[in-house]
């Protein structure tokens, strides 16, 4: 058996010699350092590709770790653009708390830009970042992202939370809606429920897509045909109808009652407590006659069984996305967006029966 030929690996010095530059210039060019001109960076990358240069991942990880501490000052600021879109539900407070704790633990500090700034032109925010020497921006979920497109021109590292920001398409941290629905379905099955219903409202598709609903529909198709329930879409459950609060919207409530009578679920999974209010108003006892699972328990909410989405951890993961970009000298809109998904935690608060209990 012939011996394998051992070829000496190409080093950074080999690339530097072929490109006619110093090894330090090669190092800075390959990590996209803006102190090296774009033309020179491209030339060096072409030479590295031609020589089939591959960095040692262990050395690269170590130097990135050292470089991160050396180049980023202690308590370096990260700007947080608070859009105020979710101030009444407490999620943003938890996102911000988690982001601040993670930033502080990594030697950064969060500088909150007041939501009033968002109502003005975004170039004003860009000017503030540049004037204060801020190199990273965390964007809270906006209620309306039409005016957020100007972020595409920001020369800083950026990340956002959840799926509400559509343009530009930034790195993001979000709840794992699909996994959370899987957890809810597993809990309902273990508790002996046979007819598991899913209720939502039509506007839900725009802010977060159909991630959780898609998992439910896939699970439903694997069940016995007699146990497959249609999804109930309420057209107005998430907004006011004729000046009334959602729970008082007669048209939406009556549509829900018709679905309830036809499908006869024994437990409901939903993002919205209004469906719980409607079926209890109809006289159904919870959990004796109907169970209820809330997919997004608000901080401090002990009213429902369901999923704590770990909003604080989502905020922490968003900060880690920013720090990673800073250490790699990356800025602006990424060529390929990354999403970090955070799994929720099941909480039993009495709106579902005990595991294995008979109906």
What does this structure look like?
The protein has about 350 residues and is α/β, with parallel strands linked by helices. The protein has three domains: about 10-55, no CATH class; about 75-175 and about 310-345, Rossmann fold (3-Layer(aba) Sandwich); about 175-310, Rossmann fold (3-Layer(aba) Sandwich). Helix content is about 40%, strand content about 15%. The chain is elongated, with a radius of gyration of 26 Å. The N and C termini lie far apart (about 70 Å). The model is unreliable at about 1-5 and about 235-240 (pLDDT under 50).
Question: In terms of per-residue confidence, which ranges show pLDDT below 50 for 5 or more consecutive residues?
Answer: 1-6, 237-242
SSE order, one letter for each helix or strand: HHHHEHEHHEEEHEHHEHEHEEHEE
* The CATH top-level class label of the largest domain: Alpha Beta
Distance between the termini: 71 Å
Total of DSSP H or I helical runs spanning 4+ residues: 13
Portion in beta strands: 15-25%
Rg calc: 26 Å
> What spatial form do the alpha-carbon principal axes imply?
elongated
The main sheet comes to: 6 strands, parallel
What's the total number of strands? 12
pLDDT averaged residue by residue: 84
- What is the count of distinct domains? 3
Strands across the major sheet, in which order? 2-1-3-4-5-11
Please identify the oligomeric state: single chain
| CATH homology-level superfamily of the largest domain | Response regulator
CATH-derived architecture of the largest domain: 3-Layer(aba) Sandwich
């Amino acid at each position: 058996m012939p011996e394998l030929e051992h070829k000496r690996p190409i080093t950074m010095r080999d690339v530097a010699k072929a490109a006619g530059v110093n090894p330090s210039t090669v190092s800075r060019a390959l990590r996209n350092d803006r102190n090296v001109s774009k033309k020179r960076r491209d030339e060096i990358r072409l030479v590295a590709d031609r020589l089939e240069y591959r960095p040692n991942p262990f050395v690269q990880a170590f130097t990135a770790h050292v470089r991160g501490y050396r180049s980023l000052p202690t308590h370096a600021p990260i700007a947080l653009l608070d859009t105020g879109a979710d101030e009444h539900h407490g999620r943003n407070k938890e996102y911000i708390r988690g982001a601040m704790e993670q930033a502080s633990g990594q030697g950064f500090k969060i500088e909150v830009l007041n939501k009033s700034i968002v109502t003005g032109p975004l170039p004003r925010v860009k000017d503030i970042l540049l004037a204060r020497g801020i190199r990273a921006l965390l964007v809270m979920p906006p209620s309306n992202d039409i005016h957020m497109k100007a972020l595409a021109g920001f020369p800083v590292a950026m990340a956002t939370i959840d799926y509400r920001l559509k343009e530009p398409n930034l790195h993001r941290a979000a709840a794992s809606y699909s996994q959370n629905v899987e957890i809810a379905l597993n809990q309902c099955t273990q508790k002996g429920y046979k007819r598991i219903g899913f209720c939502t409202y039509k506007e839900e598709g725009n802010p977060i897509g159909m991630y959780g609903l898609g998992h439910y529909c896939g699970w439903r198709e694997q069940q016995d045909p007699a146990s497959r329930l249609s999804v109930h879409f309420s057209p107005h459950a998430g907004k006011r109808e004729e000046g009334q609060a959602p729970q008082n919207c007669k048209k939406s409530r009556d549509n829900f009652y018709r679905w309830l009578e036809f499908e006869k679920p024994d437990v409901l999974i939903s993002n919205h407590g209004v469906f719980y209010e409607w079926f209890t108003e109809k006289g159904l006892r919870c959990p004796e006659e109907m169970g209820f699972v809330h997919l997004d328990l608000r901080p401090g909410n002990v009213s429902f069984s369901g999923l704590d989405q770990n909003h604080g951890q989502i905020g922490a993961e968003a900060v880690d996305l920013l720090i990673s970009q800073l250490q790699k000298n990356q800025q602006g809109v990424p060529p390929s967006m990354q999403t970090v998904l955070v799994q929720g935690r099941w909480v039993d608060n009495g709106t579902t029966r005990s595991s294995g209990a008979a109906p």
